[in-house]
Amino acid sequence: MKATLLHTKGEDNNPRIKTLVIDGEDDDPIFSLLDHLISLALNDNAFEAESAKDVQNMFWVKMPPGKKSLTLKWKRRVLDRPVFREPLRGVGESGTSPTEPLRASTWIRYLKRLGEKAGFQHAFTQYGLRRGLLNVVNHKAPASVRDQIFDHKPGTVSWYLDEEVQFDTKACFLGLPSNNVVQKVARLASLTADASAPTELSSEQRAKLSQHPQVIRLSQKTKL
Predict the structure, then answer these.
(1) Global confidence as pTM
(2) Residue 160: its pLDDT value, please?
């Protein structure tokens, strides 16, 4: 899934996400920043559209004709609310503060605790995240794109690059082929595909499949 975040500035002159543009799907939701942002927004009831309260509508809604993305607008009351906020502290309190931004010290403490729970030998830090990604991206993307990803400006070429990074950093980090590569292979495969080949099972095949002992056993297992 791809997302475009359109920003506006709040009363404290800090950037705020104004609209969220959703495009496509993600095969690995646990690594999807967009999925986490949507989860936070649904928990805060932040979207203007009533249909956006149902998470299924967010991913299964059909795109309007001629468009490749869906724009979701925030309610006005949340425009100046930080996306990541401090946890509530105190006797009997639980949840997240409605207004206080997440502190760097809290973020660092959470990362350290996550590393300890995962059994890492060394402390888990934000620097480690950036270093890990940089070592994967290095030599796989042009130097200008690499500097753009990490907000380094050694030369003037960065001023001419698009604001959106034209490189699949997640696929690179996970060692997976990028969407562009997969789509190119699919287009080439379609040139030799048999258009007359059946795309559905015949009635006889369906009957045999439904009567197969393993299929029956798995079907019963899913109903438990």
Answers:
(1) 0.53
(2) 66
